[in-house]
Amino acid sequence: MHILVSVAMCTYNGAEFLSEQLKSIADQTVEVDELIVCDDRSKDNTIEILKSFAATSKFPVHIHVNEQNLGSTKNFEKCLSLCQGEIIFLSDQDDRWREDRVEKQLSYLNAKPEVDAVFSDGMMMDDDSKPIGRTIWQEIEFDVKSQNKWKRGKPHEILFNGFVVTGATLAIRKSCLERLMPFPTHVPDLIHDAWIAMVLSLQNKIDFIADTLIWYRMHASQQVGFGAKVEKVQLKDRFVRDRKLKLVPLEEKAHKLNEMYLLLRAIGFVPREKLIKLYLAQKHFYRRASLPERRYQRLNPIVNQLVRGYYRFSSKDWWLPAIGDLLE
Questions:
Q1: For 75-124, how does the pLDDT look when each residue is reduced to its tens digit (9 = 90+)?
Q2: Can you give the three-state secondary structure of the chain, one letter per residue?
Q3: Where are the domains of the chain?
Q4: CA nearest to 191, candidates 79, 78, 81, 72
Q5: Bond preceding residue 182 cis, omega within 30 of 0
Q6: 5-217: CATH, from 3.40.50.1980, 2.40.290.10, 3.40.50.300, 3.90.550.10
Q7: What is the pLDDT of residue 240?
Q8: Which of the four pLDDT bands, split at 50, 70 and 90, describes residue 239?
Q9: Which residue has the higher pLDDT, 204 or 234?
Q10: What does the pLDDT read at residue 61?
């Protein structure tokens, strides 16, 4: 029995790299059944490239131009809702798929009917389509230890600490979208792929293939991505910088975690016990952000958080933020 496969691609001023991505989709070992494109009002020749590709494509290409700019999250929501396939592959406009991506992920979902989504690793490349020399998972530190924890049934705990699912590598069942939509937009950083992964992880409905099934492009103009690494604060700086520079990011982190907690708690099918660590994490960051001005008054609350193991919410090197809180 043939399973209908859709590709959901969102575009916005993507002319520079779009042709390479479209060719990689066309060259798959297992052909897709349709490509749905939602363009967020591009100002370059993105639409012309899409129409040219559609004119010779072996599969139908449906191009939708938004009446107004929606942003990446709502654009993907629209694009996914327009797909007819039972399995939907998410696609960025500027990457390149390995020729067996569809084959690998489709086979996995066929073999695992209890799983609603599967993601993979990807090789990273530059503007010239040359390898950078590392993978997505190396960049975001989704290492063997984290992978094993995911397999042990705790993917949600990994995602509470950081988003490791790259939407450009996702394949999902259309049937799960009714549980995921509408995508929220009021929680910073919780974009479409993060939301999909978070909700499905709480049901143990998302898994991964430890293989590099796409080439992921890193360049200056991409709308979303990993961004620049945050430089670590040097020890000498902790004694001289404005204390607000330390507290504001902690307050923002606490607020984001709290918004996420409230959002997930409102979903009826999410087990409350799986949200305990998220609740404790947001409380931990609120406590860090409200430590007293005087250093000696911070000692007891810091020790309390250390003894309870809560500084592991801040970093795997848990002792470093604890020392930072004491000194700064």
A1: 999 999 999 999 999 999 999 999 999 999 999 999 999 999 999 999 99
A2: CCCCEEEEEEECCCHHHHHHHHHHHHCCCCCCCEEEEEECCCCCCHHHHHHHHHHHCCCCEEEEECCCCCCHHHHHHHHHHHCCCCEEEEECCCCEECCCHHHHHHHHHHHCCCCCEEEEEEEEECCCCCEEEEEHHHHHCCCHHHHHHHHCCCHHHHHHHCCCCCHHHCEEEHHHHHHHCCCCCCCCCCCHHHHHHHHHHCCCCEEEEEEEEEEEECCCCCCCCCCCCCCCCCHHHHHCCCHHHHHHHHHHHHHHHHHHHHHHHCCCCCCHHHHHHHHHHHHHHHHHHCCCCCHHHHHHHHHHHHHCCHHHHCCCCCHHHHHHHHHC
A3: 5-217, 235-327
A4: 72
A5: yes
A6: 3.90.550.10
A7: 61
A8: low
A9: 204
A10: 98
Instruction: Tell me the one-letter amino acid at 236.
Output: K
pTM, full prediction: 0.90
Q: Average pLDDT of the chain?
A: 92
Tell me the two tokens of residue 230. 């945050």
Other C-beta atoms within 10 Å of 295: how many? 13
The encoded tokens of residue 145 equal 């230890």
Q: What percentage of residues in the chain have a pLDDT greater than 70? A: 93
Neighbours of 246 (CB within 10 A): 18
Start-to-end Cα distance in the chain:
63
Q: Encoding tokens for residue 231?
A: 């430089």
